[in-house]
């Protein structure tokens, strides 16, 4: 399924970008004046790029099922990040070139021109949107991101919707290239209608319908260790969710956390028509308080998301690598009936006490005839299991296996680097990094 979906999705994405960028350039050429110099012309073109890039960002935030199944939410979130920084630079450069262009044309200082333009309400709204984009981008830089809780970072990203409103209003009054003729008006507002329609449908309408249909509730809360807890969720007709082992949901617990706080937790057991299970480590406000959820509490789930499933396999033999709490999707994959006996599981933890769900993993591995390696201790010296020679010694036929890896960033990065060194084909490598945004 994934193998068929990916080429079509790549073609669809490439065609969408090429066709729309071509139309954007035609609109720029057809608009002609009022840009009176090179600075004004560049500023106007950058404005068109900015507006189009914002529609792309909206489509990425909408989490279209076609793209999710083909590429996985993790890769889409990477695209979201780079698209966001592209929006940032375009948002800074577009007004800068426009202001310089007007200043040179009117032969007045740049600052005087900027103040005069900002007194126009549509321009002022655009500048406010630029300021919000700068805030979002600044807090998305890795140094700043590490200092924020997931809940705070997610709340900041909700400013994106304010930016969209301000940006659209700005385009209505200032976007002369969009109103050249009937075709440009139909095209431009049709593009925005498609993007916003996808966003509202994917992030609001579909989740609301699904949650009304399935009526999710907390069935049990089971502590797995001092800081890890499993939440069992029941509901009606859960098979209609079409969730798969390895996927995740965005979870909200009304009454336990604020409505805008949603956390991505993987399924830690293969889903069925009666129950779902998530297992989380208490690292944030929401996850730390899960053990206080009362039985019967309402649950709002958005998803399932992710292509970290056995549908992505290219080989019958499999290697599953988990680190820390990253064991949750690995544990659910191990339970998937499609997983064969030719499976190796590597579970990396600092201490034996940190190996949550280990009893379940041992039972599942034994039931399938899979090999399980639990590796403990600090990394360094002779204990470097993901150093390429050591990993190859542990799994000699690694190049003939699909490899699934989920764990802390440092572990995942080390494993991916080792797999490249060992020349494991990229199509056989599947990683879940949980960089979800927006």
Automatic annotation (TrEMBL):
It comes from the Bacteria. CDD domains: FNR_like_3 (cd06198). This is Predicted ferric reductase. The lineage of its organism: Bacteria, Bacillati, Actinomycetota, Actinomycetes, Micromonosporales. Its cofactor is FAD. The chain crosses the membrane at residues 12-30, 42-62, 82-103, 123-143, 155-173, 185-206. It is found in: Membrane. The keyword Ligase does not apply. Its main location: membrane. It comes from Actinoplanes derwentensis. Residues 211-311 form the FAD-binding FR-type domain. GO terms for molecular function: 2 iron, 2 sulfur cluster binding; flavin adenine dinucleotide binding; metal ion binding; oxidoreductase activity.
């Amino acid at each position: 399924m994934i193998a068929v979906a990916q080429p079509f999705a790549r073609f669809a994405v490439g065609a969408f970008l090429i066709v729309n960028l071509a139309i954007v350039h035609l609109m720029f050429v057809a608009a002609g004046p009022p840009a009176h110099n090179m600075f004004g012309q560049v500023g106007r073109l950058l404005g068109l790029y900015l507006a189009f890039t914002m529609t792309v960002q909206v489509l990425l935030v909408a989490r279209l099922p076609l793209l999710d199944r083909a590429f996985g939410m993790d890769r889409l979130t990477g695209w979201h990040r780079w698209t966001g920084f592209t929006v940032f630079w375009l948002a800074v450069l577009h007004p800068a070139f426009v202001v310089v262009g007007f200043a040179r044309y009117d032969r007045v200082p740049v600052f005087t021109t900027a103040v005069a333009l900002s007194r126009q309400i549509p321009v002022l709204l655009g500048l406010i949107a630029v300021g919000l984009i700068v805030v979002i981008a600044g807090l998305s830089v890795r140094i700043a991101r590490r200092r924020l809780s997931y809940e705070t970072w997610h709340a900041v990203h909700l400013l994106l919707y304010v930016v969209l409103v301000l940006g659209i209003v700005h385009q209505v009054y200032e976007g002369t290239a969009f109103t050249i003729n009937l075709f440009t008006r139909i095209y431009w507002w049709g593009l925005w209608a498609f993007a916003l329609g996808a966003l509202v449908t994917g992030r609001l309408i579909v989740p609301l319908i699904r949650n009304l249909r399935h009526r999710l509730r907390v069935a049990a809360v089971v502590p797995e260790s001092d800081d890890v807890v499993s939440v069992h969720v029941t509901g009606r007709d859960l098979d209609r969710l079409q969730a798969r082992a390895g996927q995740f949901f965005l979870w909200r617990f009304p009454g336990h956390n604020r409505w805008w706080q949603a956390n991505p937790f993987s399924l830690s057991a293969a889903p069925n028509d009666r129950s779902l299970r998530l297992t989380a480590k208490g690292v944030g406000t929401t996850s730390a308080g899960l053990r206080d959820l009362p039985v019967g509490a309402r649950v709002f789930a958005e998803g399932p998301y992710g292509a970290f499933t056995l549908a992505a396999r290219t080989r019958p033999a499999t290697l599953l690598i988990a680190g820390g709490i990253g064991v949750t999707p690995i544990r659910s994959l191990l339970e998937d009936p499609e997983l064969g006996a030719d499976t190796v599981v590597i579970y990396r933890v600092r201490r034996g006490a940190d190996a949550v769900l280990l009893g379940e993993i041992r039972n599942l591995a034994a039931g399938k005839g899979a090999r399980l390696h639990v590796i403990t201790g600090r990394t360094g010296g002779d204990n470097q299991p993901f150093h390429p020679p050591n990993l190859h010694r542990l799994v000699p036929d690694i190049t003939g296996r699909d490899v699934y890896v989920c764990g802390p960033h440092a572990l995942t990065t080390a494993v991916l680097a080792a797999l490249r060194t060992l020349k494991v084909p990229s199509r056989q490598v599947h990683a879940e990094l949980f960089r979800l945004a927006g």
